[in-house]
Amino acid sequence: MSADADGGDRDGGAEATAPCDRCEMSIPVDAAQCPVCGYRPGGYSPRLLRAGEVAFAVAIFGSILIFVGGVMRLSLGVPTDILAQVAVVTPYTAGISGFFLYYLRKKRRATPTDSRIFGRDS
């Protein structure tokens, strides 16, 4: 058996495996689809998930802009209007949108061995 310069193993390059969530056969952890049963997690279109990610990213960006604008108006002594009143809730909007953005990114990148991501420990 030979070793690389960093001490790794060249001959024993065994791929990491885990059981498929559906058929329980051992498959590579980075497989997009189970090579045994054909299971592909999610059931949603990657295009739809990407659109959701973009929508939540825009919501976060818009929330930050509204918050900064409202705070600046208040700090400059401009009379409060709807922008300043809405600015109070935008941190919550940004936080909730951030959560859903994170969830959709995880869902889009899920593999057949990722049941632990969504709380379904086998």
TrEMBL record:
<feature type="transmembrane region" description="Helical">
    <location>
        <begin position="54"/>
        <end position="76"/>
    </location>
</feature>
<protein>
    <recommendedName>
        <fullName>Zinc ribbon domain-containing protein</fullName>
    </recommendedName>
</protein>
<keyword id="KW-0812">Transmembrane</keyword>
<keyword id="KW-1133">Transmembrane helix</keyword>
<keyword id="KW-0472">Membrane</keyword>
<feature type="transmembrane region" description="Helical">
    <location>
        <begin position="82"/>
        <end position="104"/>
    </location>
</feature>
